[in-house]
Amino acid sequence: MASRDDIKFLSNPAVGRNRKKYCRFRKFGIKYIDYKDIDFIRQFVNEQGKLLPRRITGNSLKYQRKVATAIKRARHLALMPYVTDHYN
Q: Which of 18, 35, 48, 50 has the fewest CB atoms within 10 Å, i.e. the most exposed one?
């Protein structure tokens, strides 16, 4: 009979574990969110063009507000579309 150490997992044992969410702005020391940096802002928008919520992105409330403001400014200046199909 095989011992417990000899048994290989059929799936990754880390699957299903929730990673600790963190605010990337606080972690990397980002103070200003530039509305002209479309590649960075696109990370916070889904493929329909909607803002992703804090519970998914892990942003703190302060920086989620700044991200929302930057996206709204970029949309107003036509750097980003308001609504689209398959944006990313």
A: 18
Instruction: Give Cβ neighbours of residue 79 (< 8 Å, ≥ 6 apart).
Output: 35, 36, 38
Whether residue 59 is predicted with pLDDT greater than 60 in this model: the reply is yes
* 26 contacts 61 by C-beta, under 8 angstroms: no
Domains of the chain in start order, with CATH, are 24-76 (4.10.640.10)
Residue listed under structure tokens 């998914």: 56
* Listed residue (30, 29, 51, 31) closest to 41, CA to CA: 51
Quickly list DSSP for 2-71.
--TTTPPPSS-TTTTPPPPP--HHHHHT-----TT-HHHHGGGB-TTSPBPPHHHH---HHHHHHHHHHH
